[in-house]
Amino acid sequence: MRLLSKIIASACLVSSLAFVPACGGSEDSPPGPLAKHFDEMYIAQIAVDQKTAIVNAQQAWSVARMENAKAEADLADLTNSKLPVARNELKTLRIGVDTAITQKKSAQQSADTNRINQAAKDQDVAEKLEKSGVAHVKYLEAYQTYLKVTARYTAENMYWLEAKFELTKSQLAQNSHIAPQNVKFEWYPGQEQERGKRVERAKGKWESQRASATSARDTWLSQQKAADAANGNHPTSYYDPMAPVPTPAAAAATPAPTP
C-alpha cells in the first residue's frame, strides 16, 4: 500500500511538471495560479529598450486582469441585485393576474356586459404581462449563466497572458545568455501552451452560452412587445443587459426629453 502511494505521488509530480491536468484536477476545474514564474531580478540589468516585448506582455496581462474583475463584478451585481428584482417584479405580475381573475368573476356575477368585456380584457393584459415577466426572468437566468462562463473565460485568459509574460521574460534571459540556477527554460513554453489550450476550450463554451442568452433575450423581447401592445402600447422598462449600447453619434442625434 505504501509502495502504491509512492507511485501515485511520483506520477502526480511528473504530470504537474509537464503541465498536464491530473491528480485532483481536470480540464473543467477552475484555473489556478501558475506553477512557474521567472524572477525579474535575473534580467534587471538588461537595458529597458530591450524589454519592449516584456512591457507589452505585462500590459496585456494587466488588461486581462481588469476584464476578469469586471466579469466577476457584473456577475455579482446580477446575482445579488438585478435578478432578485426581476423575480420580485414577476411576483407582482402574478398578483395582477389573480386580481384580474377575481374582478372578472365579479363582473360575470353582475351581468353587466361592458364590465364583463373590460374585465376579460384586463385579464388578457395581465396574463400577457405575466408571460413576458416569466420570459424576462428566464432571460436573466440565461444571462447569469453566460456571466459565469464569461468570468471563467476571462480568468483562463488572464492566466494565459500571465504565462506569456513569464515566457517572454525567460526568452529574454535565454537570448541574453543568462542562465539562473534551478531554472529550466523549457518550463515556460509548456506552461504557456497548456494555458492557451484552456482558453480555447473556455472560449467555445463562452460563445455557446452567449448564443443561448441571446436566444432567451429574443424570446423575451417578442413576448414583451405583445404584452405592451395589449396594454395600450405602454412600454415596460425592464433591465436588458444585452441591449445594444448607443454610439456617441446616435446619442447626440436623440432629441432631449421635454421637461
List the helices and strands and how they pair.
Elements: H1 2-17, H2 52-110, H3 113-175, H4 187-230, H5 248-253
Helix pairs in contact: 2-3, 3-4
Write a concise keyword list for the protein shown above:
single chain, 259 residues, mainly alpha, 5 helices, rod-shaped, disordered N terminus, disordered C terminus
Measured distance between first and last alpha carbons? 82 Å
> What is the 3D shape?
rod-shaped
Order of helices and strands: HHHHH
The percent of residues in helical segments reads over 70%
Helix-strand makeup class:
mainly alpha
Q: What is the number of strand segments? A: 0
Taking all Cα atoms into account, the compactness measure Rg is 29 Å
Task: Provide the β-strand percentage band.
Answer: under 5%
Strand count, sense and barrel status of the largest sheet are: none
Rounded mean pLDDT score: 87
How many distinct helices? Answer: 5
Stretches where pLDDT falls below 50 for ≥5 residues? Answer: 1-25, 254-259
Describe the structure.
The chain has 259 residues and is mostly helical. It contains five helices and no strands. It has helices at residues 2-17, 52-110, 113-175, 187-230, 248-253. Helix 2 packs antiparallel against helix 3 and helix 3 (113-175) runs antiparallel to helix 4 (187-230). The longest helix has 63 residues, at 113-175. The radius of gyration is 29 Å and the shape is rod-shaped. Residues 1-25 and 254-259 have low confidence and may be disordered.
